[in-house]
Q: What sequence folds into this?
């Protein structure tokens, strides 16, 4: 369904209003993580600027269920297992339409992300901080893992990964993927120090790589 059935039962809806509703749906497709209510407000304000305030646009409460249904119809199905994860293309790109996907190793279920700027900052920085957290891990994954670097203002994350466990082989895979990604981008990774929590598997992997 395209979520339009509520609007089709309004025979007096003008073509302009119909186009306004369509513009909201386009925004939902273009910005799938934005609040639907915000997109509605922005497009309605734009419509009123261009067409005046007299037009009777359906209020948000009247159309929200249809708009949310439309957004759901455009989202990928929630995976039930790590092996079934399919990363949509738009989630592998930055806002500047540059590659953001570092790796998607399906054999070990390791997913990593880094922008071209992030990998360059990592290569330029001699001191790294690496840390895993469990509270923010995506569903089905065991932990979120990130590598941070310092600039003259603060420490900031530049590499992001979702890991299925904390085994040495998993860390090895992630770091090997990171090294290959850096090489593809013409970046040499030669940190002088890496600060990590005392976790033996991570320590062994970083020491080897």
A:
């Amino acid at each position: 369904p395209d979520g339009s059935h509520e609007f089709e039962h309004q025979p007096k809806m003008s073509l302009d209003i119909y186009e306004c509703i369509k513009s909201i749906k386009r925004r939902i497709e273009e910005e799938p993580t934005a609040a639907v209510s915000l997109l509605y407000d922005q497009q309605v304000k734009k419509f009123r600027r261009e067409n005046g305030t007299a037009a009777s646009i359906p209020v948000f409460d009247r159309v929200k269920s249809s708009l949310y249904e439309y957004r759901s119809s455009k989202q990928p199905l929630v995976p039930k297992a790590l092996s079934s994860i399919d990363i949509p293309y738009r989630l592998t790109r930055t806002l500047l339409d540059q590659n953001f996907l570092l790796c998607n190793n399906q054999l070990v279920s390791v997913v990593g992300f880094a922008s071209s700027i992030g990998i360059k900052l990592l290569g330029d920085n001699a001191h790294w901080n690496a840390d895993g957290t469990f509270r923010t891990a995506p569903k089905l994954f065991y932990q979120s893992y990130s590598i941070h670097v310092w600039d003259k203002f603060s420490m900031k994350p530049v590499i992001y990964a979702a890991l299925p466990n904390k085994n040495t082989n998993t860390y090895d895979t992630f770091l090997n993927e990171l090294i290959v990604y850096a090489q593809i981008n013409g970046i040499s990774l030669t940190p002088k120090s890496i600060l990590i929590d005392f976790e033996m598997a991570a320590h062994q992997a970083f020491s080897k790589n």
Remarks:
- Strands lie at 101-105, 110-113, 127-133, 143-150, 155-163, 193-196.
- The chain has two domains: 5-74, 85-208.
- Residues 99 and 199 are 31 Å apart (CA to CA).
